[in-house]
């Protein structure tokens, strides 16, 4: 069995931070998502609104995109399958993709390449406040899902460096590193298909327990 390139525990020096395994951090992102649900920015999962499955199937699954990347991550963490379906149909706001590139410390051009969308098209959609849909939108949602996994790893850690750890930036570097468990391929190069995303998500989740397949 091959082993993934597992980041080391957070180092004391800034030079080693990029390769560190995500430690815990505050629950601020989750609280932001909960506040957004409470304030009506987007619907809460059915169970939290006291809806039955039948009632929820008739309710709007996704009325508006969350306003920030953090709230988008929080939304997808708690979304029901029906809400996820609607999010996939709606796609991701192009401006959110640019925010994601910035937070992950990736050049916008590289982000567009990972998502399989032309730079001119992405820029035009951002200017028009339009959504990126189709395969590129699916890949963008996949990256947001990976951000959620990375932040879950951080939240579950007891490392004292938690408060200062930047999970988004770490993930941006991790997806660009060849992984032995992926046959030497970069995670970023597998996000253009649902199966590739699933494989990368499992590998990322395995970093928390050290169980590699």
Give a structural overview:
Helix 1 packs across helix 3, helix 3 packs across helix 8 and helix 8 packs parallel to helix 10. The chain is globular and about 45 Å long. The protein has a two-stranded antiparallel ribbon with strand order 1-2. The chain contains ten helices and two strands; from the N terminus they run H-H-H-H-E-H-H-H-E-H-H-H. It is 51% helix and 2% strand. With 213 residues, the protein is mainly alpha-helical.
Number of strands: 2
In round numbers, the mean pLDDT is: 75
Strand order of the largest sheet: 1-2
Give the uncertain stretches in residue-range form: 8-20, 23-63
- Major pleated sheet: 2 strands, antiparallel
SSE string, helices as H and strands as E: HHHHEHHHEHHH
Give the N-to-C terminal Cα separation: 6 Å
Task: Give a short summary of the structure.
This protein has 213 residues and is mostly helical. Helix content is 51%, strand content 2%. A two-stranded antiparallel ribbon has the order 1-2.
Features:
2 strands; two-stranded antiparallel sheet; mainly alpha; 213 residues; 10 helices
List the helices and strands and how they pair.
Layout: H1 28-38, H2 53-58, H3 69-78, H4 81-90, E1 92-93, H5 94-103, H6 108-115, H7 119-127, E2 131-132, H8 134-156, H9 167-174, H10 194-206
Antiparallel strand pairs: 1-2
């Amino acid at each position: 069995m091959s082993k993934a390139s597992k980041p080391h525990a957070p180092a004391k020096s800034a030079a080693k931070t990029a390769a560190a395994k995500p430690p815990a951090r505050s629950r601020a992102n989750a609280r932001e998502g909960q506040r957004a649900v409470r304030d009506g920015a987007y619907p809460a999962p059915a169970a939290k609104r006291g809806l039955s499955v039948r009632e929820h199937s008739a309710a709007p699954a996704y009325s508006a995109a969350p306003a920030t990347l953090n709230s988008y991550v929080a939304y997808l963490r708690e979304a029901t399958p029906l809400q996820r379906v609607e999010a996939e149909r709606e796609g991701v706001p192009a401006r959110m993709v640019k925010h994601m590139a910035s937070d992950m410390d990736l050049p916008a051009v590289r982000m567009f390449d990972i998502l399989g969308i032309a730079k001119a098209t992405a820029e035009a959609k951002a200017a028009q406040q339009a959504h990126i849909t189709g395969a590129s939108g699916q890949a963008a949602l996949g990256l947001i899902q990976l951000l959620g996994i990375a932040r879950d790893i951080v939240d579950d850690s007891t490392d004292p460096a938690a408060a200062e750890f930047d999970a988004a930036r770490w993930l941006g570097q991790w997806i660009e590193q060849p992984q032995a468990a992926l046959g030497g391929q970069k995670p970023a190069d597998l996000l253009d298909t649902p199966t590739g995303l699933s494989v990368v998500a499992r590998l990322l989740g395995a970093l928390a327990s050290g169980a590699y397949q």
